[in-house]
Amino acid sequence: MFHLLDIIGTMAFAMSGALTAMSKKLDPFGVFIIAFVTAVGGGTLRDVMIGRTPVGWMQDPTYVYVIVWGFILAIIFRKKLDRLRTSLALFDTIGLGVFTLIGIQKGIDYHLHPVICIALGTMTACFGGVTRDILCVEIPVIFRREVYATICIIGGILFFALRKMNVENDVLYLATSSIIIVIRLLAVKYKWHLAPLEHK
Amino acid sequence: MFHLLDIIGTMAFAMSGALTAMSKKLDPFGVFIIAFVTAVGGGTLRDVMIGRTPVGWMQDPTYVYVIVWGFILAIIFRKKLDRLRTSLALFDTIGLGVFTLIGIQKGIDYHLHPVICIALGTMTACFGGVTRDILCVEIPVIFRREVYATICIIGGILFFALRKMNVENDVLYLATSSIIIVIRLLAVKYKWHLAPLEHK
Amino acid sequence: MFHLLDIIGTMAFAMSGALTAMSKKLDPFGVFIIAFVTAVGGGTLRDVMIGRTPVGWMQDPTYVYVIVWGFILAIIFRKKLDRLRTSLALFDTIGLGVFTLIGIQKGIDYHLHPVICIALGTMTACFGGVTRDILCVEIPVIFRREVYATICIIGGILFFALRKMNVENDVLYLATSSIIIVIRLLAVKYKWHLAPLEHK
């Protein structure tokens, strides 16, 4: 079940990357690389920083195949994706919840401090998108408009609060990912965002 | 022989980086770093991702010296490099072929899946240039115009096809690098490129 | 003492990152990430490249707390920071000296060649700022105007020259960091910079 959600999230991230790249008029190789990087960039950065190498996607070619499919689907349906925007946002949000949990779990596996685990969860969920924006020469959208990363941090804090209460693992996972997904959907619906900080 | 080609490719990549940086009016330190990153960026990313650390160029200062020479030559001949463009493109192409093979070989050494090995070969050959463009705040040229990475992928597929037929190692290396170099030279001569994918 | 200087440098780097991010009108999360990356980016890149994982700041949450404080202070005093510019430049310069030494020392711990150690010192001191500029979609300032990295390299060469003369460790550290700090302050005061290299 969890693995299936991981696959759905990976594909949604790959498609979102492909769409951004196509709007920049990149060639097919460029579109594929941006799709790839958006999907696995966060987990790759996490693995490299904690020393879990070769990084995750190199040990399981499934991810490569999923991304290839996401890339192909994004190209085929590129003219219809505006109408599919809602489904895509839903899948993307599932990715957000699942990837945050995967990142936190990896931190726990490496016996890192809860604060660091939350940072790893946020990194796993958000830095694929950051890399996508940097490769497209844009200031990353999550630094400007979206309450995206903040939700991962809230989810992470909740995770460790529940864990301290000895909540069972299944419930812990379900509760944390659900709360991340629900807040994110509300944020999209009601256009929540953080006000920019200006220094003058 | 193979090592000599590696050196030639490294120097060509360093010079191409230095030229891009000078066209952006960077100061000498900036030019040097861009030369450095263009030459070793792909291999560094590969080594970090597979966990081969300290990364390659840290274990053999030869690369640093070669890059210093490439940097100095690029500065001295900077006004004449237009006329030397053809030789430079040839050396750069040798780098492309050799670096692809080195990346594939590292993947095999780490017992990774052929698909991942081809990704590592492409990364080794192409991501120095991607990093160069990002540091110069340009959308990477290989995502937009050049059939550069696609040739590495074709070369990689050929490599594993021949390998399955139990072709001898020397022939395998020679055939793969030659085919990459020949296709690349034809692509430059006849201005082959992939059409951009637009989604509207 | 050395650890205290490390903390001061980390906080100064975090504040410089926060100020750059606020001038780009990022939201609070974006400002925090840029502060974080400016403070630990150089050391993180160094650790990942030499294989010292999980990277430094993951093993000691002190850094995270220092950066959170730097972030908060930068927000509170953001309207007064122009008047505090001199103190901030001083702290930043302390960071430059200390981080260069930390990077060199890590290279020695890993038995790397002096040339590579100097590269690691320069990377530790300078690449946080490079990452900050890349995330803000600017050509890194140290590639264009500032004699910043060049001073780290000079300091590194001095370090190994003194070391060859069997200078005691304490004196070695004090002399190298002092010289880096003094040259940097002179460079800021007299606006020293390297002329750009143009190729046409």
Automatic annotation (TrEMBL), chains A, B, C:
Topology class, membrane: Multi-pass membrane protein
Protein name: Putative membrane protein YeiH
The keyword Glycosyltransferase is assigned to this record: no
Cellular component, GO, one term: plasma membrane
Family as reported in the entry's similarity comment: Belongs to the UPF0126 family.
Taxonomy, superkingdom: Bacteria
Lineage: Bacteria, Pseudomonadati, Bacteroidota, Flavobacteriia, Flavobacteriales
Span of domain Glycine transporter: 4-78, 90-163
Localisation per UniProt entry: Cell membrane
Residue ranges of the TM segments: 6-22, 29-50, 62-77, 84-104, 110-135, 147-165, 171-190
Keywords recorded for this protein, A-Z: Cell membrane, Membrane, Transmembrane, Transmembrane helix
Primary location group: membrane
Coiled coil, from the record: none
